[in-house]
Amino acid sequence: MEIKRDIYIEKLKRRENNGLIKVVTGVRRCGKSYLLFKLFHDHLSEKGVDEDHLIEIALDDRTNKLLRDPDNILAYIKSKVTDTKQYYVVLDEIQLLSEFEDVLNSLLHIRNLDVYVTGSNSRFLSSDVISQFRGRGDEIRIYPLSFREYSSVYEGTPDEAWDDYITYGGLPLILSRQTPEDKAEYLSTLFNKVYLDDIVDRHNVRNREELDEVVNILASSVGSLTNPLKLSKTFKTVKNKNINEKTLRKYTDYLIDAFLVSKAVRYDIKGRKYIGSPSKYYFEDVGLRNARLNFRQMEENHIMENVIYNELRVRGFGVDVGIVDQYGKSEDNKTTKKRLEVDFIASKGNEKYYIQSAFSLDSESKREQEERSLNEIGDSFKKIIIVKDNINPRRGETGIVTMGIRKFLLDENSLSI
After folding, report:
1. CA contacts within 13 A on the Cβ side of 168
2. Taking phi first (over 0 means left), then psi (-120 to 50 degrees means alpha), and beta for anything else, what does residue 99 get?
3. What would the DSSP string read from start to end of 215-259?
4. For residues 222 and 26, what is the distance between their CA atoms, to the nearest angstrom?
């Protein structure tokens, strides 16, 4: 079973021979090594690169232990470069290499080398890419499988694919697990024994119980506005614990750096400014979120919203939560103001879309509710409501487009329809 991950191959192709270290990042088990060692390898072979010009080293392989020494690996790579043609170097689990920053910077001095690396996010996070490479690193972020990628190899009906995806998520290896019990066990073990252990080890977290509770609260409130102050109040009222905002902010930052959750901040559409706290948090993979809650709280509307957010990120959009004020008059003729929310503002270059996630529009009042904030925006960018129903895109009298979730997810050009 081969999953085509063309969106990332295209990103790698655009960055070939750009003079920078290509750093592939993402949550553990999302397919970074497969992307480089299989899919990108195949691409290079198909374009005519000879096998002896592909230098690929998996540093977590015991047979490559000696190459974890910086001088040994530099000597090894240089010994492979025997002519002036282009060579491609792929290094996996780069954090196992001592002084890897110096090694990679040294490789940049060899003109006919193009270098690609991956790393474990316990020690090799997006923030590290920025600080350690000082402008010499080019990050390519990879996500768990999109629903389009997942469906391309799923053996079952479209309805079954959707049910499995919103339950068990898109980590590639989930497709090799045959039973619900195996899938649940895989995700739970991965979350607790790999992801959280990474965070505890990296940041020397002393109170694992507090971190666990923060994860549980965020998992239970996907798509809800929250901030460290609200989390602190939740701990006080529900857990009868006093945890200061600074500590809670650190925990959420750790989860973001580990690619477990993402934060969408609020943006005042008419005022054209960011509002800041509170924000919304979404899980990088909905299966991990569900496993964390032992597959309770399976509200499909909230999970669908998380899936839409993730899909927009996969497509390269920056995603914010929109705020728009609606003004009116009270019965005594005083000016009133009501703050309305737009689920997502998706922006990429000159592209911008306002998107509402609405599980259903089963009544005229529900439709009016979902359209209200979109109609208050007042600019010409496309406004879209995504619903659970399997419907083709249709445009209403006010120009708002309604489309089904599957059309949105399966058609990579769905937003421009």
Report:
1. 23
2. left
3. HHHHHHTTTSEE-HHHHHHHIIIII-----HHHHHHHHHHHHHTT
4. 20
Please tell me the predicted confidence (pLDDT) of residue 129.
61
Q: How far apart are CA 225 and CA 204, in angstroms?
A: 28
Indicate the pLDDT class of residue 268, thresholds 50, 70 and 90. Answer: very high
CA 199 – CA 122 distance, rounded (Å): 6
E-state strands within 218-363: 225-226, 261-268, 273-283, 318-329, 335-348, 351-357
Angle at 263 between CA 134 and CA 152, to 5 degrees: 90
List, for residues 154-212, the tens digit of each pLDDT value: 999 999 999 999 999 999 999 999 999 999 999 999 999 889 998 998 889 999 999 99
Q: Match 């690169």 to its residue by tokens.
A: 49
Beta-bridge partner residues of 395: 401
Give me the domain span that covers residue 42.
6-141
Dihedral class, residue 93 (left if φ above 0, else alpha if ψ from -120 to 50, else beta): left
pLDDT at 333 over 60: yes
Can you read off the two tokens belonging to residue 49? 């690169």
Query: How many whole angstroms from its chain centre is CA 184?
Result: 21
Mean pLDDT of 124-152: 81
Is the residue at 1 inside a domain?
A: no
57/154 same-domain check:
no
Position 130 scores a pLDDT of 57
Angle at 128 between CA 127 and CA 130, to 5 degrees: 70
d(CA 335, CA 312): 37
Q: Which residues of 339-348 are buried (b: 16+ CB within 10 A; e: fewer)?
A: ebebbbbbbe
* Residue 145 token pair: 């499988």
Domain count, the chain: 2
Q: What is the CATH number of the domain that holds 22?
A: 3.40.50.300
Tokens encoding 157: 């009906």
Torsion of CA 123, 128, 134, 135, to 10 degrees: 110
